[in-house]
Design a protein that fits this description.
Elements: E1 6-11, H1 15-26, E2 32-37, H2 40-47, E3 61-64, H3 73-82, E4 91-95, H4 100-108, E5 113-116, H5 121-138
Parallel strand pairs: 1-2, 1-3, 3-4, 4-5
Length: about 150
């Protein structure tokens, strides 16, 4: 990948879903690199560039599952949106949960978008391509460093 490729941070513990999402992303026109964390603790360590991830690249987009080991996706979302260095990164919850409480809680925590995963392969590919197209081609995002413009 070249320097202009986008970085998608996929926080997902299900290996099958990881593989399917990666395959769906390969079918799009957007040049992107997928970085994966398989639990909430690993996700926050990466995003905060801790000692195990000193060269971690700030992602352009975070795809976040809610049901994660070690640290729940809701906790991860709350920490991201509370951190001035991270809160401008768009977060799309991509989960199997259709629970209304999960949906309301995610929006209360300032998720940018909540999408329920489809078990239908072609529908899942369509969802992932739509996410990528909107967030990485159509939407105008803040600079990677998440710094506000000079006043």
């Amino acid at each position: 990948m070249d320097e202009t490729s986008k970085v998608i941070f996929l926080v997902e513990d299900n290996r099958g879903d990881i593989r399917l999402i990666q395959e769906a992303l390969k079918t799009t026109a957007v040049q992107c690199r997928v970085v994966i964390a398989r639990d909430g603790m690993e996700a926050m360590a990466y995003l905060r560039q801790d000692e195990d991830h000193p060269d971690a690249v700030r992602p352009d987009l975070i795809l976040l599952d809610l049901n994660l080991p070690k640290k729940d996706g809701r906790e991860v979302l709350a920490e991201i949106k509370a951190d001035p260095q991270l809160r401008h990164i768009p977060v799309v919850v991509l989960t199997t949960s259709r629970n209304e409480e999960d949906i309301f809680k995610s929006y209360d925590l300032h998720v940018n978008c909540y999408i329920s995963k489809s078990r239908n392969l072609s529908q899942l590919f369509k969802i992932v391509r739509g996410i990528e197209e909107f967030w990485l081609e159509t939407a105008t995002l803040p600079p990677l460093e998440g710094q506000s413009p000079a006043q």
